[in-house]
């Protein structure tokens, strides 16, 4: 189990997956082929020079790859989600008005419009009755 935590290739693979990058894309960024990336990801160790190249292609530091752990990644994303939810972009939006008050204003406005429409129809009916007499 200790080899799994220090397996550089698996860490590279997991970071690549988290960045939503295919092996082919990483291969292209490194100027190599997909089979070479597969070999790197199956390697328990990697030379420092190659690690620096891979880290640059993944947009992370070599230390980030060396120290990568699933738990740290989960904690990072949970922290990000907590930060977003505590801002106005999360689920904790605060209204500066009472939505029920606004709803009641709209209801009252609709009543007034309906009464005006009803009065216009009554006036039209009265005019037609006057014309027919």
Automatic annotation (TrEMBL):
InterPro entries: Cro/C1-type_HTH, Lambda_DNA-bd_dom_sf. Pfam families: HTH_3 (PF01381). SMART domains: HTH_XRE. Residues 12-65 form the HTH cro/C1-type domain. GO terms for molecular function: DNA binding. This is XRE family transcriptional regulator.
């Amino acid at each position: 189990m200790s080899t799994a935590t220090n397996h550089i290739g698996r860490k590279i693979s997991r970071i690549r997956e988290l960045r939503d990058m295919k092996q082919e894309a990483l291969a292209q960024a490194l100027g190599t082929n997909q089979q070479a990336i597969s070999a790197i990801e199956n390697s328990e160790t990697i030379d420092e020079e190659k690690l620096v190249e891979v880290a640059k292609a993944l947009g992370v530091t070599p230390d980030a790859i060396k120290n990568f752990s699933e738990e740290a990644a989960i904690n990072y994303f949970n922290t990000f989600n907590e930060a977003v939810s505590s801002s106005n972009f999360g689920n904790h939006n605060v209204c500066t008005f009472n939505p029920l008050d606004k709803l009641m204003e709209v209801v009252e406005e609709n009543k007034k419009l309906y009464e005006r429409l009803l009065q216009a129809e009554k006036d039209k009916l009265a005019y037609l009755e006057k014309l027919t007499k």
